[in-house]
Design brief:
The structure holds 2 protein chains of 2 kinds. Chain A contains 8 helices and 10 strands. Chain A is an alpha/beta fold. Chain A has 2 domains: 100 residues, Dihydrodipicolinate Reductase, domain 2, CATH 3.30.360; 126 residues, no CATH class. Classes of the chains: A alpha/beta, B alpha/beta.
C-alpha cells in the first residue's frame, strides 16, 4: 500500500478550491473567444467581450470570476493500493474546502438543511463522488458548481420508444426553458442510461471533459453536434439577450440500462465553468 | 441596442423610468441596496406587519447579489447578479411600496412584469458571471440590515457607472423575448 498523508489531501483540496475560483480553465476561455468571433448579435458580442475581460481581471487580480463560488463538487478516483494515513479521505477533502474558501475569500453558499436554511459558514459539506480504480494514486477532480445553472438542470425517465429523438427533444427543451437564467453561454452535460441517479451523476461527470475534445464514441459525437446546433438555433444568446451562442459545448455520457428504461439527465453549467484536477 | 449609453442616477427621480426602453444600455451611479431571497422574505414580512423596511424603498433600486467577502483594503469582493426569478414572489410587494428598479439576471414572471407596468418600475440585467469586473464599479459597501444572513445581508452600495441593460420597461417591453426572436432559427 502507498500511504498518502491526510494533510497532503487537505492541502490539495484547498489549493483546487482557491485556484479554480479566479483562474478560468484555458479550454473555457478559448471557447468563449471562438464564440466571440462567431457571434453576430452586437449585444451578444459585447457580453462575450465582457466575459473575456472578466476572466482576465479575475486571473490577474486573483478575484473570484463569479461571486457564486459554488458548491464544492469532487470526483475522486482512489487507487486500490493508495491509503490516506491519519483520517478519512472525506474528512480531508472537507477540511481542504473549509480552509480554501476561507483563505481565498470565497463565498460560503451552503445551508445545513433545505428547509431551515442556516448557513454552515464554511461551504461544507462538499459533494464527493468516490470511485475505486487500479493503482496507488488518488486523482481529485474539482468543480465549483454555481446554483443558478444547477437550478435549471432536469431529469426525465423516457420510454425506450422515444429513443434518440426523445433525448434530443428533452435536452433542447431543458435549455429552451432555462432561457437567460443559467448565465448562457452554457456547457450542457447529458447523462443517458443507467438508473435515475446514475443518469444525473453522468450528466455532471460529462461536464469535466475538455471543451473542444471529441467524444470517444463516434455515435455520441454526432449526437452532441446535433444537439449543440439545435440549442444554438434557439436564439437565446449570451446572457439571453439574443444571439447564436447559447451553448459552448454539449457533452454526453452513456451507460447500460434496464430494458424498460431510458433515463436522461441534463446538468447545465454556466460559462464560468470552474474546474481543476490534481493527482496525488 | 442603440449603441448609446444612458447615464442613470439612483435613487431614481420621479418619472425617470418612463423613458427607459428594453435593450437600453445604462450606466448607473449612486445608491443601490442589495437583497436576495432571505432578505426579501424578511422585507415582505416587515411590510406585511406594518413595520418599516430596512431602507426607504421609494425611488430605490435593489440589486440581487450576494458578494464574496472583501479582501482587506477593498470595498467588496466579486459582485455579479444572481437569478432574479427567485425573487418573483416577493417583487410585486416591494414595487407596490415604491421600489423603482431591480437589477439581476434572467427572466421575470408575468406577475412581476405586470407589477412593473402598474407601479411604473424597470428591471435591469447585469452580466451574470462577470463578478470580478462588476465589482470595479462598486465604490463602497456597508451592511445596513440582517447581518446574520452573511452574504445575503442587506448592503448599501455606492456605485459609479455600474453597467446594466434594461430588460423590462414600463410598457411591458422585454429584451429577452425580442432579442431571442431576432436570432432564432427554427
Amino acid at each position: 500500500m502507498r500511504k498518502i498523508e491526510f494533510q497532503t489531501v487537505v492541502d490539495a483540496a484547498k489549493e483546487l478550491c482557491a485556484r479554480s475560483a479566479s483562474d478560468l480553465p484555458a479550454d473555457v476561455e478559448r471557447a468563449l473567444a471562438a464564440a466571440r468571433a462567431r457571434e453576430i448579435s452586437p449585444a451578444g458580442a459585447e457580453i462575450l467581450d465582457s466575459l473575456l475581460e472578466n476572466a482576465r481581471v479575475a486571473r490577474d487580480e486573483k478575484r473570484p470570476i463569479c461571486q457564486d463560488t459554488g458548491v464544492a463538487v469532487f470526483f475522486i478516483e482512489k487507487g486500490a493500493e493508495a491509503v490516506v494515513a491519519g483520517g478519512t479521505l472525506t474528512d480531508a477533502v472537507n477540511e481542504g474546502v473549509r480552509r480554501g474558501y476561507e483563505e481565498a475569500f470565497l463565498r460560503k453558499s451552503i445551508v445545513r438543511g433545505p428547509l431551515d436554511r442556516v448557513n454552515t459558514k464554511d461551504n461544507t459539506p462538499a459533494v464527493i463522488h468516490l470511485e475505486e480504480v487500479p493503482g496507488d494514486r488518488i486523482s481529485i477532480r474539482f468543480m465549483a458548481k454555481g446554483g443558478g445553472c444547477e437550478n435549471m438542470s432536469r431529469l426525465a425517465m423516457l420510454t425506450p420508444a422515444e429513443g434518440r429523438e426523445g433525448v434530443i427533444r428533452f435536452v433542447v427543451g431543458a435549455v429552451d426553458a432555462a432561457g437567460a437564467n443559467p448565465c448562457p453561454p452554457i456547457v450542457v452535460g447529458v447523462g443517458m442510461g443507467g438508473t435515475f441517479e446514475v443518469a444525473a451523476l453522468l450528466a455532471k461527470k460529462a461536464l469535466f471533459r475538455e471543451i473542444g475534445s471529441p467524444n470517444p464514441a463516434p455515435a455520441l459525437e454526432t449526437l452532441e453536434k446535433e444537439i449543440l446546433e439545435k440549442i444554438n438555433n434557439l436564439g437565446i444568446g449570451p446572457q439571453g439577450m439574443g444571439g447564436v451562442t447559447t451553448a459552448l459545448a454539449v457533452h454526453v455520457l452513456s451507460h447500460p440500462c434496464h430494458i424498460a428504461s431510458l433515463p436522461v439527465a441534463v446538468n447545465i453549467e454556466c460559462h464560468a465553468h470552474r474546474s481543476a484536477e490534481v493527482v496525488l | 441596442m442603440s449603441g448609446t449609453i444612458i447615464k442613470v442616477k439612483s435613487p431614481l427621480a420621479e418619472g425617470a423610468v418612463e423613458s427607459f426602453r428594453a435593450g437600453d444600455v445604462v450606466r448607473i451611479s449612486g445608491v443601490l441596496y442589495t437583497a436576495r431571497d432571505a432578505a426579501h422574505k424578511r422585507i415582505v414580512e416587515a411590510l406585511d406587519a406594518g413595520q418599516a423596511p430596512p431602507f426607504e424603498l421609494s425611488g430605490q433600486i435593489v440589486y440581487y447579489v450576494g458578494p464574496t467577502p472583501a479582501r482587506p483594503g477593498e470595498a467588496i469582493g466579486s459582485a455579479g447578479p444572481t437569478t432574479s426569478c427567485r425573487m418573483d414572489s416577493y417583487a410585486p410587494r416591494l414595487l407596490e411600496a415604491g421600489l423603482k428598479g431591480m437589477i439581476g439576471k434572467g427572466n421575470r414572471a408575468p406577475v412581476v412584469v405586470e407589477a412593473m407596468k402598474k407601479y411604473r418600475a424597470v428591471y435591469f440585467a447585469a452580466v451574470g458571471g462577470a463578478g470580478a469586473l462588476i465589482s470595479k464599479s462598486i465604490k463602497s459597501c456597508e451592511i445596513i440590515a440582517y447581518e446574520d444572513l452573511g452574504a445575503e445581508a442587506v448592503r448599501k452600495l455606492l456605485v459609479e457607472d455600474f453597467p446594466a441593460i434594461v430588460v423590462n420597461d414600463v410598457l411591458g417591453g422585454d429584451i429577452y423575448e425580442t432579442g431571442r426572436k431576432k436570432y432564432q432559427r427554427l
